[in-house]
Amino acid sequence: AQTVTQSQPEMSVQEAETVTLSCTYDTSESNYYLFWYKQPPSRQMILVIRQEAYKQQNATENRFSVNFQKAAKSFSLKISDSQLGDTAMYFCAFMKRTSYGKLTFGQGTILTVHP
Amino acid sequence: EAGVVQSPRYKIIEKKQPVAFWCNPISGHNTLYWYLQNLGQGPELLIRYENEEAVDDSQLPKDRFSAERLKGVDSTLKIQPAELGDSAVYLCASSLDFSTEQYFGPGTRLTVT
């Protein structure tokens, strides 16, 4: 079974600064996807970024980028130029290519952006 | 484009009572998911539908939980009877198919007293 571990229960950052959220996972699979989801206090889960394991290039989406280290099974999220609206719970998630949509989530990291 | 709609947003019931949650996925999305999210934790998949067929319900506690997706569109998740430990947020998500992005609804927060 796959496991996803987020070792930082809470993080905080000043507005406009950069913060990195950590995620490690355990799997014997070679074909899989990794995701970061954001869940603001309103509870609606939103996809932030997605990485396909066979792609060596790290995914980026505007201010959000990942550092994907396949051998180390590490998948960290970097948020640049943090904004107050980035305050949320962030979940790392894993999906086997053959699991037909089954996501395995980590425990989450609460990120607070301070003005 | 309307997102995933869930109702009710909040529900408070006494233990041993039945409860039902409703989900309307994004139009055209064939795959529908129900997740359970306990406080301070990540969601856990309960059941997944491809159109009207439940293709993965291995995590659904079938002694008290049931789900249906009539005509492959709306879905209902039911608990009967509810227990104190069922207090959680129940999330619905949908996607075009199992390989594409899952869009989540706002969830239903259930409190069992």
What proportion of the residues of chain A is helical, as a percent range? under 10%
Helix content of chain B: under 10%
What is the CATH third-level topology name of chain B? Immunoglobulin-like
CATH H level, superfamily name of chain A: Immunoglobulins
Largest protein interface, residues of each chain? A-B, 18 and 27 residues
How many angstroms separate the termini of chain B? 37 Å
The major sheet of chain A is characterized as: 6 strands, mixed
Strand percentage of chain B, roughly? over 45%
Q: Say what oligomer this is.
A: heterodimer
User: Helix and strand succession of chain A?
Assistant: EEEEEEEEEEEE
The low-confidence parts of chain B are none
The coarse overall form of chain A would be globular
Shape of chain B: globular
The SS-based structural class of chain B is mainly beta
The CATH H-level superfamily of chain B is: Immunoglobulins
Number of strands of chain B: 11
Question: If helices are DSSP runs of H or I spanning 4 or more residues, what is the number of helices of chain A?
Answer: 0
List the helices and strands and how they pair.
The complex is a heterodimer of chains A (115) and B (113).
Chain A: E1 3-5, E2 10-14, E3 19-21, E4 24-26, E5 32-39, E6 46-52, E7 60-61, E8 64-69, E9 74-79, E10 88-96, E11 104-105, E12 109-114
Parallel strand pairs in A: 2-12
Antiparallel strand pairs in A: 1-4, 3-9, 5-6, 5-10, 7-8, 8-9, 10-11, 10-12
Chain B: E1 5-7, E2 10-13, E3 19-24, E4 31-37, E5 44-50, E6 53-56, E7 65-68, E8 75-79, E9 88-95, E10 103-104, E11 108-112
Parallel strand pairs in B: 2-11
Antiparallel strand pairs in B: 1-3, 3-8, 4-5, 4-9, 5-6, 7-8, 9-10, 9-11
